[in-house]
Amino acid sequence: MSFSNLMMASSKRAQSRFVLALDLEQDDRQILFRECNEILEDVHEYICAVKINRQLVLALGLPTVSQIVRKAHEYALPAIMDAKLNDVGHTNSFMMKSYVNAGFDAVIASPITGWSGGMDTVFEEARRNDKGVILLVYMSNPGAEEFYSMLTSTEDGRKPIFEVFAQMAVEWGADGLVVGATRSEIIRQVRTLVGPSMAIYSPGIGVQGGDAKKTVESGSTYLIVGRTIYASPSPKVAVRKLYESVK
Ligand code: XMP
């Protein structure tokens, strides 16, 4: 099954659009591993996927992270690696292979490299293994505007760079794109550009200021949430509240 279909099936089964960002911080590796598993166990019925960041891979190492991916799969949840890949082809290819071997179903990459000798190997590796590629189109942090809204010259005239990235995502056959939940107007514009079937993943709900309902109404498909869930005194209560807000 393609990654896009896997996500649709998971979202439908769980009746949820929420992707848990498992970014826990903890110096003790054993405690960190245990806490990740506990959070997953606690909230699994209210989410449709898990997203793991490079910070967890640095803290635990890929083989241990792979065990968390396996746990997500036991709950029938797809696992996304937020690698923001943006290197040259041969190293991108190696990183992509490593994440695929660790069991991830999709990887987030940055289109800033362009296709040839950059993103081409990421997509080749993904297609060879029936995995997904999600492209970063507009970040959620306050300073993102400085770059992602920068005007750039194209054959069709000047346009903001995020529009170019959104068009690349369509041309390259990406399985989704990332637009920050703090940017409702940009989500709307991107949705218009890419059409109804491209999945838009939006991080930045809660702690960063994004509102779940408003983000969905703007055109996002999946909502990526970290601290608002895992740093809450009761992650289960927090995720259920979010779940109810967009049900
Ligand atoms: P919080 O705790 O703010 O975590 O809910 C958000 C998660 O999403 C990631 N993040 C992003 N990933 N583009 C991305 O690809 C973004 O604009 C972006 N903003 C936040 C962040 O790494 C964390 O895992």
Sequence-ordered SSE layout with sheet pairings:
Elements (H helix, E strand, L loop, with lengths): L2 H12 L3 E4 L7 H15 L5 E5 H7 L1 H13 L4 E7 L3 H13 L4 E4 L5 H14 L3 E7 L6 H4 L2 E4 L2 E4 H12 L3 E4 L4 H11 L5 E4 L8 H7 L3 E4 L1 H4 L4 H12 L1
Parallel strand pairs: 1-2, 1-10, 2-3, 3-4, 4-5, 5-8, 8-9, 9-10
Antiparallel strand pairs: 6-7
Helix pairs in contact: 2-4, 3-4, 5-6, 8-9
Bound molecules: xanthosine-5'-monophosphate.
Molecular structure report:
44% of the residues are buried. The chain has helices spanning 3-14, 29-43, 54-60, 62-74, 89-101, 115-128, 145-148, 161-172, 184-194, 212-218, 227-230, 235-246, and strands at 18-21, 49-53, 79-85, 106-109, 132-138, 151-154, 157-160, 176-179, 200-203, 222-225. The strands form two sheets. It has an eight-stranded parallel beta barrel with strand order 1-2-3-4-5-8-9-10, surrounded by nine helices. It has a two-stranded antiparallel sheet with strand order 6-7. The longest helix is centred in the first third of the chain and has 15 residues, at 29-43. 50% of the residues lie in helices and 19% in strands. The protein is α/β, with parallel strands linked by helices. The radius of gyration is 17 Å and the shape is globular. The structure holds xanthosine-5'-monophosphate (XMP). Residues 21, 23, 53, 82, 84, 108, 136, 139-140, 178, 180, 203-208, 224-228 line the site of xanthosine-5'-monophosphate.
